Amino acid sequence: MQAKKRYLILLSAGACLILLFCLGGIQVPLSRRGPSRPHDRRLSGYGPGARWRHMSGYLQPFSSWEQDRSDDLTEHISPRQKRDANSGLYTGKRCRMESCFDFSLCERNGFKVYVYPQQKGEKLSESYQNILSSIEGSRFYTSDPGQACLFVLSLDTLDRDQLSPQYVHNLKAKIQSLPLWNGGKNHIIFNLYSGTWPDYTEDLGFDIGLAMLAKASISTENFRPDFDVSIPLFSKDHPRTGGEKGYLKYNTIPPYRKYMLVFKGKRYLTGIGSDTRNALYHIHNSEDVVLLTTCKHGKDWQKHKDARCNKDNAEYDKYDYREMLYNSTFCLVPRGRRLGSFRFLEALQAACVPVMLSNGWELPFSEIIDWNRAAVIGDERLLLQIPSTVHSIHQDKILSLRQQTQFLWEAYFNSVEKIVLTTLEIIQDRVLLHTSRSNLMWNSLPGGLFTLPQYSTSLRDFPFYYAELGIKPPSKFTAIIHVVTPLVSQSQPVMKLLVAVAKSQYCAQVIVLWNCEKPLPAKHRWPATSVPVTVIEGESKVISSRFLPYNTIPTDAVLSLDEDTVLSTTEVDFAFTVWQSFPDRIVGYPARSHFWDSNKERWGYTSKWTNDYSMVLTGAAIYHKYYHDLYTTYLPASLKIMVDQMSNCEDILMNFLVSLVTKLPPIKVTQKKQYKETMMGQPLVPLNPSCQGTKQNSPSRWADPDHFAQRQTCMNKFASWFGAMPLVHSQMRLDPVLFKDQVSILRKKYRDIERL
After folding, report:
1. What are the CA-CA distances from residue 753 to residues 573, 670, 671, 675, 750 (Å)?
2. What is the pLDDT of residue 195?
3. What pTM was computed for the model?
4. Which residue numbers delimit the Exostosin GT47 domain (predicted)?
5. Going by C-beta distance under 8 Å and a sequence separation of 6 or more, which residues neighbour residue 67?
6. 510 and 491 in contact (C-beta within 8 Å)?
7. Cis preceding linkage at 446, omega within 30
8. For the CA atoms of the chain, what is the radius of gyration?
């Protein structure tokens, strides 16, 4: 009996073991290799999903795991996967910043980018030359590889289609021979086209190793999050700098246009990318949904043409593409041979809301841009639902989408320079994670390129987000008086100005910036005031030092003043109250304007008193102190050196910068001709002030013809660097309530202004 029970127990246990094995509860090693091999022991803790230790540089266990894992799984993968692995498509597939990037290179000198010198005999396409020039002209560039955090090849990697005339042969050997390549670590490779007929794979034809990819038309399958950067596909004619503005000139309510949905492009009869475009005729109605395709492209299109080709080609020629683009509410962006398409950027610029129809495409700059706010993401499998989907979108949402297309186009896409700088800023945010920008900074005006994380990571410290955050503008300002002449008399204009400014109820502090070569005056020579007066020496005694981000500025608002400015306390108070309503702009008194001289084909500068202006000079203006940081950090050294050498045009350059950021004009307050007349009567400020004597009996610089000639030159030099003219004209002037009205003076708050 006992033996029978033992047999039943053994039988039950055996049955349980067999059941567990069948259900996968017990795994039996199938490899012929024994478990005692060293590489098997190293797998402990490094399997898929394991948390990698944060190490600086390339993790050796990571490499070993990949190599050994590939050996173990060789017999379980498909032949195509084997080919892809051998070609380098999946090499470094698991790379992330923590595992394939050496952060220590960035700790020494910050985020600096080195571009390899161009090798003899190597030709560069115009597009790649524009990319390299944009990097070399940026604040990130360094010519010393020992200071670099990131490296960029001088070998053209943009077009890796073997049938293209731009294809660079033997690229693998050329890259491997570079002494700084180091397996691709801390390198970034730019690419627009990969693969060739017929399948157009994403293989670049060489092993990128540990390098990051900044690639157009990259799929979500091959995209390595927080490591690669998806960039837009742009044409060879895309401008290097500046770029055109968006075509949305004004908002129409309701925001509907002539067409609801349009597309005009090639139809592929065979090969990859043909299915989606071949099916567009199903939803084309020739009325509000106009989707046109043509078979007439390529050398042998007639060999493959189908029954619809002749009809499609005839209708295709009836419509003008630009007219359709600018008169449609939505623009279809289907995939082509590759996932990306030129239609994407064209739709953004035209304020035609893109309807994406490219499954698996990692959208450009998806790491930072919320595309749901600017585009409609469709599905190729649900093509027939697209018309009803776009018709169901409310007009408020359409207006919001359209406005966002214009912001994104001008902020990140309208030039090669902005595409490149956005790519570098994304990588810098990864490297300096503690100072990275927020999602709101990237997706709202003025955009991530103009919100420097080195200044602050808090939205409330920037002038652009006060309204959105519900924050009241600052209630105090700091006055900075720029002094270039010696203090010889208590009756000098600078003394009167200092007293008048210090009496303002909004003044927190007065800073005297001493840019004179003579020693600082004794403290007792300055007038006694109710607010602190700090005298500091300008750095190198150059005129740009007036815009340095001094730590002694305690407030967000800055009142910038020239030493010979004539302002009353009432004028200062009124200007500051106006600035509180426009904290992101320059607000002040002396206005100037620019114009296009068609005869000389250049920009002109004028100080004529008209009803039109585009600049407010910083000799008597209020602005946010953040612009000091932006002026110092964003602008290139070449422009600031030019300004310092002439000791002129710094105010124009600041106006260029602020208008570039805000896309808005400055604000002029109360007409004050006395300001001009007083300035015309003041003696001359030398162009390179040495302060070796007084300025008596010398003419005003405002009447000096060389002064205005220099400013004309500055206008064109600045416009050339910016790539376009950022200044915006305005005819608005803000005066106090009841200004010049025939009512009792007692009813007016700023009554003293009218007496000036």
Report:
1. 11, 8, 10, 12, 6
2. 87
3. 0.83
4. 108-392
5. none
6. no
7. yes
8. 33
State the virtual CA torsion across 161, 163, 167, 168 in degrees, nearest 10: 110
The whole-angstrom separation of Cα 332 and Cα 347 is: 9
- Cβ–Cβ < 8 Å for 147, 109: yes
pLDDT of residue 68: 41
Cα-based angle 155, 157, 162 (whole degrees, multiple of 5)? 120
N-term to C-term CA, the chain: 122
**List of E strands, 363-469:** 376-377
pLDDT of residue 609: 85
Report pLDDT for 35.
37
207 has catalytic annotation: no
State residue 697's pLDDT score.
Answer: 38
Taking every pair of C-alpha atoms in the chain, what is the biggest distance, in angstroms? Answer: 132
- Give every residue of the chain whose pLDDT is below 70, as ranges: 1-8, 10-11, 14, 16-91, 298, 300, 302, 672-704, 740, 755-756
The number of helices, as runs of H, and strands, as runs of E, in the chain is 25, 23
Edge-first strand order for the sheet with 602-606 is 602-606, 591-597, 615-616
What SS3 state is found at 572?
Answer: helix
Residue 263, helix vs strand vs coil: strand
List 592's β-bridge partners, or say none: 615
Q: Looking at 288, 651, 706, 752, which residue is catalytic?
A: 651
For 456, counting Cβ atoms within 10 Å of its Cβ (0-12 exposed, 13-18 middle, 19+ buried), the class is middle
**What are the residue ranges of helices labelled H in 24-87?**
38-42, 60-73, 79-87
Residue 747: what pLDDT?
A: 77
Place of tokens 């349009």: 262
- Is 147 buried (19+), middle (13-18) or exposed (0-12) by CB count in 10 A? middle
Rounded to whole angstroms, the Cα distance separating 360 from 630 reads 38
**Rounded-to-integer distance, Cα 394 and Cα 387, Å:** 14
Tell me, what's the pLDDT at 54? 37
Amino acid at 707: H
Using DSSP's 3-state secondary structure scheme, residue 72 falls into: helix
Alpha helices in 187-297 (DSSP H): 274-278
